[in-house]
Write a structure and sequence with these properties.
single chain, 7 helices
Length: 213
Amino acid sequence: MNFKLSLLASLSLATTVFGFDYKPNTKPFEVRIPQETYLNLKNTTKQAKLSQLPLWQKFRKQNGNFSVAWNEFRGNPHRVTGEPIQILGFSRIDKNNAEQAAKAFLSQNSALLKLKINELELENLSEQAGIFYADFYQTFNQTKIFDSRITLRMTSDAKVILFGSDAFPEAEPSNSLALDLSTAVSFAKNSINFNENTDENLTQNKTWLLPLV
């Protein structure tokens, strides 16, 4: 079997990944990537309970009836859709101010989204058919935290039509980044019996923090 090495085998995604405990795991010998904690959870009772949170009720009272899918593990609104919401302080959006407008909206709703603006790093900003797509990642000491995506969709007249946050509100890793790229690659290769002659190395020079949940 041929492998495409991107450090998926032993270091989960990205090139150099440093794990830290985010929440206690009831299965101590099992490491689950963060996505599994919300993509596989469809608990109607939990979703209904989160929808009663005062911050969410306040948001709905101010902005109207919205649909929400919660990240049950972190308590964040994973995706919110509804009537377009005007971004305060903006009347038009273009490529020059789209990031600023996105951050303004996130700042205005930071408590609900459980994020800190100074921890965000822009990952993607694009425009298609008049819709601006903005994606951010949470960082810790300038290192991205894996699966902490914060996303928005905005119209050219400065209205948000979709947003969501998978930030880790309690992420404070205590471990130092002591594993360098070459050591990480070597460790991953050994873990999957990587064959230099037949397998493809797709590693990238990136560093991520992976919350172990």
